[in-house]
Specification:
- By secondary structure, the chain is mainly alpha-helical.
- It contains eight helices and two strands; from the N terminus they run H-H-E-E-H-H-H-H-H-H.
- A two-stranded antiparallel ribbon has the order 1-2.
- Strand 1 and strand 2 form a beta hairpin.
- Helix 2 packs antiparallel against helix 3, helix 3 runs antiparallel to helix 4 and helix 5 packs antiparallel against helix 7.
Length: 244
């Protein structure tokens, strides 16, 4: 007992240790939060560097490129659209870079981003950089006289994206950025979960079809697969809403 009649600090078992443990816990939590933020920043820096590769390719091959460059092909690989050299070397990479920044910050600023599967978020962060490098590389290669089957690579990439995203889509909980953001999915967690489980199967199937179509190059399959992947889950979701 102290002079005042109150127990001294050292006579209260575990009190000091409790304070120390609480402080340590707070410090660890703060360090953990800092680590998460740093990892996200590294992801943005790395993906943005990849988005800068088209600019590097433009600088390297600028002097060898013609004034008019093919920028659009049909499914048979026949050129049917041209753009200026300046648009291909500067405008196109800028469009991809801007799209990448918009996608990144839209996903990161979602107040419900903790409901987004980490794997699905990472896939979305890398879609635009991968597309930017592929499009710029193939466009420049075609302009330099190389034989390029643009439709094959585009179909393969879109199919792979649908397939992989379809695997993780059922794990995506209610949020405002990734998934089918419809009035009835956003207002009902049950509707959201059922819609995205169903959509996962549809996207995987459409992805496999498009990967196969990269070798077949059937004109109507690309548009049909994309429409089915977007419309069928939306209709299914609406039916759930009407029948509840």
């Amino acid at each position: 007992m102290g002079k005042t009649g109150k127990p001294s600090q050292k006579n209260i078992p575990g009190k000091k240790n409790t304070v120390i443990k609480t402080n340590n816990s707070a410090a660890k939590k703060k360090q953990s939060n800092h680590k998460v933020t740093w990892n996200v920043d590294k992801m943005f820096i790395a993906s943005t560097i990849v988005c800068a590769i088209p600019f590097m390719l433009s600088v390297i091959y600028f002097g060898q490129l013609p004034e008019q460059i093919v920028t659009h092909w049909n499914l048979q690989g026949i050129a049917n659209g041209y753009s200026s050299k300046m648009f291909v070397t500067v405008g196109l990479p800028l469009i991809f870079l801007a799209a990448h920044v918009i996608v990144y910050y839209a996903v990161e600023r979602d107040p419900k981003r903790e409901n987004q599967p980490k794997a699905l978020r990472n896939i979305i962060f890398w879609i635009v950089p991968a597309l930017a490098v592929m499009v710029q590389s193939l466009t420049i290669a075609g302009a330099l006289g190389k034989s390029v089957n643009f439709s094959f690579y585009l179909m393969l990439l879109i199919g792979a994206i649908l397939l992989v995203m379809g695997v993780f889509l059922p794990k995506c909980k209610l949020n405002y950025t990734i998934g089918f953001k419809l009035p009835w999915t956003l207002s009902s967690e049950e509707n959201w979960n059922k819609t995205h489980h169903f959509a996962g199967y549809i996207w995987v199937a459409c992805g496999i079809i498009l990967i196969a179509n990269a070798f077949l190059l059937v004109n109507w399959l690309l548009i049909t697969a994309i429409v089915v992947a977007c419309v069928v889950p939306a209709v299914y979701s609406f039916m759930l809403y009407r029948n509840r």
